[in-house]
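FAQ: What does the model actually see?

It sees only this:
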Amino acid sequence: MSTSQRYGGTPPPRDPAAPRLAGLQAKSYAGAAGRTVGYSNFVGIMRYGLPLVALLLLGLVVVWPLATGREEGFRITFSDASGLDGSLRMVNARYLGVDDRNQPYTVTAAEASQTEPNSPLVSLQDISADVFIDDGKGQWLALTAREGLYERDARLLDLAGDVSIFSDQGHEFHTDRAHVDLGARIADGDAPVKGQGPLGLLEAGNFYVDDDKQIMLFGGGVKMTIFPGGRS
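And it is asked to produce this:
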């Protein structure tokens, strides 16, 4: 039996809600598509917008205390470049030069400071220096000290505090103060000195070293302990 016969030859009644359901489904699909496009646009904007906002906030945090003159807030300082007292400071400083015999010398320090930019005087901390070098003979003298003053133009180095002197010939001396003429290759000190070398032990009240003349003098109550045949 056909559908028209079932209803007495007349077409079956249409569901009045069908057009509304179709319209709602179409609107639902359109709304979902719109939300997808909107979400993609939102993600794209946030991808570039959030870093920009973060940079702006960081700029406000840094600049605002400086602009308002307040002490609170985050500040960026460069204490390694300059001190609070106006002096110039540098870490891991290294100074290179040549002496009167055109031989190189090197002075290094954990920290160097100058009271003025053009001052020839440099204050040094934790010093080590390689001086009195003779490349042809393989000779050298190494110095270490807790602090000192380096006069660059005159090539003078004053050391103080735990001064140690080492030579390629096996000498080792310790004193509280030493003055080094880097150009003339001369070192001396007026403080008590203790040391050792290939021949034995030594104590003295002062010392003088002239590398060009190849002499090493000690004075002020010298005490020596000499080992027969030298030290092994």
